[in-house]
Amino acid sequence: MTKDLVAVADDLAMSPEMAALPTSKQRAFVDCLFSVDGRGELLGASAAARAAGYSGDAHQINSAAQKLLKDPRICAAIRAETQRRIRNLGPEALKALTQIMGDWTHKDRLKAVNVVLERIDPVATKIDAHVTHEVVDYRQEALEQLRALRALGVSREKLEELFGYTGLAVLERQLEGAKSPVIDAEFIEVRYQEDWEENA
User: pTM here?
Assistant: First the structure.
C-alpha cells in the first residue's frame, strides 16, 4: 500500500502547527492523512499511521492512530494543514472557473459567472426586524372568562375544574372587589360644644 502513496514532505510547505509537532512520525502521520493510495482515495487513520512508520498488529496500529487523533497538537496541525491545502487549491479552482466561463456551451457557465460576480460585488442582504412585545394581562382575561361562564350558568364544579379550587376562590374575590361597594352608614350628630358647656 505504501508504495503507491502520494505525500507532501516538503518542510517549506508545512504550516507552523505542523512544523511544531515534536516528532517526525507525528508530522508524517498528519501528512499521510492528506495522502492518497493507488486508487486515488485518502488514507484512513490506521493506514496513515502505518504509512507514517508506526508498527504493530492491526489493533496496535488502530490504537496508535486514535491516540494521535486525540492529541490537541495533532488536531491543530490537521486543521492548519486543511486550511493551507485548501488555499493552495486557489489557482486550480480559478483555472477550472476560467475554463467553464470560456465554454459558451457549458451547462454551468451561468453559475460560474455568478460566482465571479458575487466575489467582485457581493449582494448585501439587509434584514430589518421589528419585535413587538405584547403584554397580556392573564388575570384580567381569567376574570372576563369567569364572568362569561357565570352568565352562561356554568356549574361551580365545572368552574373549579377550569380554574382550580384555589384559583376560582381568588378570582371570585377579585370579581367581588371589582364591584362598587355599597356602604351603609349611620351618622350621629355630636355636639361637642354643648357637652363642654354642661360640664363647665
Answer: 0.48
